[in-house]
Amino acid sequence: MATANLWDPAPAPNAAGLLLGHFVVSGLVTQEMLNISKKSAPCFVNFSRLQQITNMQAEINQKNLEIELLKLEKDTADIVHPSFLAQKCQTLQSMNNHLEAVLKEKRSLRQRLLKPMCQEHLPIEASYHSDLVHLLELAVTFIERLETHLETIRNIPHLDEREKKMSKALAEMDILVTKTEELAENILKWREQQKEVSSCIPKILAEENFPPKHDVTMPPLPLSSKVHV
């Protein structure tokens, strides 16, 4: 049964309604103020919102927990997952069978290992003979170049140092080439000077053996004659 609102002056002709009506008529209280007082308190709305937020936070925490469990399952799948465990069990079983076979044939294997491997060959089908020849050629080539490859691998950490030495050697070679060019030019000049000297030597020798003739003017004789020697 709904209870009457004491603040509503219209339906209930009680003392509170009459008093409120008197206040409205006198102007002490307006109708808008009475209407505002009818509304529900906002604190109850905030309580409901807080409850919703709490429920959403709990749901988020639950989802985060499920995600963490899935990540843990993914990380440990190779340990606890049935399919991975079945594969590991199968692998271990095959290894166990192989070891059992080896233990059963231990005596024959020991005798075969003690026996020298000579004049024995492996049976190979004829269709694979050409491939085998090519494979043996590659193996021989690889064994021949193995030491070179190993030396190259060992020298990889020293490449920077060797590059610096090579750059220094190239600079020294440039200097030597420049000096060699200067020396070659000096040699060519010296040869030209030697040729000039060689060409002048016969002339000098000829002048020393056959001195040049000079015109000599004799004084006048009494007969007034001039003799040129």
Automatic annotation (TrEMBL):
GO terms for biological process: centrosome cycle; microtubule nucleation; spindle assembly. Residues 53-112 form a coiled coil. It comes from the Eukaryota. GO terms for cellular component: centrosome; HAUS complex; mitotic spindle microtubule. Keywords: Coiled coil. Pfam families: HAUS2. This is HAUS augmin-like complex subunit 2 isoform X1. The gene is HAUS2.
